[in-house]
From TrEMBL:
Function: Endonuclease that specifically degrades the RNA of RNA-DNA hybrids.
Alphabetized CDD domains for the sequence: RNase_HII_bacteria_HII_like (cd07182)
Family under the similarity heading: Belongs to the RNase HII family.
GO cellular component, one term: cytoplasm
Stated name of the protein: Ribonuclease HII
Originating gene: rnhB
Cell inner membrane found in the keyword field: no
GO biological process, one term: DNA replication, removal of RNA primer
Translocase among keywords: no
Length: 198
């Protein structure tokens, strides 16, 4: 059972999607849910089917006090590393909220202080608190939508199915066709990779 709040109302939950991918952005969601909000389906996005995530997204967007989503793209990931890019995506999503939250709940164990707002990192928080679960669903659905869009440009990698994650099929496509502009050049793309001609 997800808890509605941690300390007080007007808390923002934030989470990211796509951290372990070989291609595409890392995407963060941030959301403030209204007092008394509840939803029986809402859970960590990884525990829900794509159908349920897509069902929840418009409900969360309609019910939220405020929400925002932000992508940080491959070049920036390669420049500052994936951990920093993940935190940056969360900060930028928080920046886009229409009001400043009273407190920030962060999924995971790493975060950098956000200006003038206290935060707490909650390990596996997307399975514990509604606002983090909601943020995880926004991050996942917006990122999946983006990956399906760029799939049209490079269908041989089948991003509409694997979403850029290091599946066997995705690695085979990299082996056959090389890297695209959407691949993260700082990531180990193939298991036997020492250097990659790029």
């Amino acid at each position: 059972m997800l808890k509605p709040i941690y300390k007080h109302y007007n808390e923002a939950g934030t989470d990211e999607a796509g951290r372990g991918c070989l291609a595409g952005p890392v995407t963060a969601g941030a959301i403030v849910l209204p007092k008394g909000f509840s939803n029986k389906i809402l859970n960590d996005s990884k525990q829900l089917s794509e159908v349920k995530r897509e069902l929840l997204r418009p409900i969360l967007e309609k019910e939220a006090v405020t929400f925002a989503v932000c992508h940080v793209f491959e070049n920036e990931i390669d420049s500052i590393n994936i951990l920093n890019a993940s935190i940056l995506a969360m900060h930028r999503a928080l920046d886009k909220l229409s009001q400043t939250p009273s407190f920030i709940l962060v999924d995971g164990n790493r975060f950098k202080p956000y200006p003038n707002v206290l935060h707490e990192c909650i390990i596996k928080g997307d399975g514990k608190f509604m606002s983090i679960a909601a943020a995880s669903i926004l991050a996942k659905t917006y990122r999946d939508e983006y990956m399906c869009k760029i799939h049209e440009e490079f269908p041989m990698y089948n991003w509409k199915k694997n979403k850029g994650y290091p599946t066997k099929e995705h690695r085979e496509a990299i082996r056959a066709f090389g890297l695209t502009k959407y691949h993260r050049k700082s990531f180990k793309q193939l298991p036997e990779q020492l250097t990659l001609d790029i």
